[in-house]
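Pasting two entries for a bug report.
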Amino acid sequence: MLRIKLKFCLCYINKVFKYNFKSIITLLVGLCLLCILLNIEYTIVKYKIVHYTKIENNHLYILDNIDNDRKEYILKVTDTPLILKNDHYIKKSISDLTCILVFASILMIFSGSLIILLNIIFSDFIPNDIIYNILYSKLKYDYENDVYNYHIYNRLVGITNEEIGYSYLSWKFDIYTLKDVLRCPIYKTKSQKREELLGKLLK
């Protein structure tokens, strides 16, 4: 039974993936790109405090980039004092390209998720329909004694005098989910029954 459930789950995932292929690929690419970008190290710039003064509620700093060979003074005004480390101001930054890629990855994640959600709400992407489609695709029959023995995953779901159509599975056999199938008796062909009987007689 566990093997049947596993096969069914794989079929279900495959159907969902095919139906939302582009959206899922967009979502996965966005997630992978975002994970990579979040692990990129920041660019660290160290500034020396050249001059500091407080004017009313503003803190005014004149900074010198000590990592640059040239004298490069920067004026920085803040509402709160800068957090200093060893009398230096440490600034972490990322490149403009990284910012653009982060924004693009977030946009991909949002758009991929939104399209999948809209497919579920407004289109024919309905989980119950997918389940029914899978079951119908696995439906097989054996013609014996002028009757059709229909079975799914080696479970006898019904017997008819004629071939059935798509809707017949639920209408006549009352089969809607995998649970309904697993409640049915195990199906055996005549040849299998004969082999079993022969095996018992030979013991």
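Entry 2 (this is the one that rendered wrong in the viewer):
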Amino acid sequence: MSQPLPDIVYYVLDGETPPSTSSDSASAPNPLTPTTITAGLHPEVSKTLHRLCRKALKDWHPTTPQPVLQILCGSAEMLAALDTALWEADPTGFLPHGETRTDPIRLLVSLEATVLGSPLLNLSGKSIAHWPGKILEIVAPTHESKQLGRTHFAEYSAAGRKPLVYPIKRS
């Protein structure tokens, strides 16, 4: 069995992609994506997501009563795109996932459906500092994502939580 996760883990991807040209932050795209959710996740986020899913599945067994990783999506559209991406992820390996409480990797749109005791990967773009379980965040190599990561980090710290930053080099 792998070592337990700290309370909050930030996976920070190195490199930089240019900032968005949008001057209205309310209409800016989700910083985890290159342009829109239909285009899919930022390529570096996608690689990291697949690594996290594979690592989480090492602790899963078919008799496990709850997911080993929950992924909070920002919308139903993002959930559908992520579902497709996980089906098509690797032609040599399947990442078992779904939306039920017993799926090893569980996709969610709302915090109300989460299971405490299973880590939650936040891809929603919203701060979830109030959620009492283990939280994972991926910071993409974009200006927008880094700024959002800083904002969430400050909110987690203000809530008395101690995020661990884990830098990831591009492969």
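Dev reply: Rendering is fixed now. As a check, the viewer should reflect this: The beta strands are 8-13, 69-72, 97-98, 105-108, 120-122, 135-139, 163-168.
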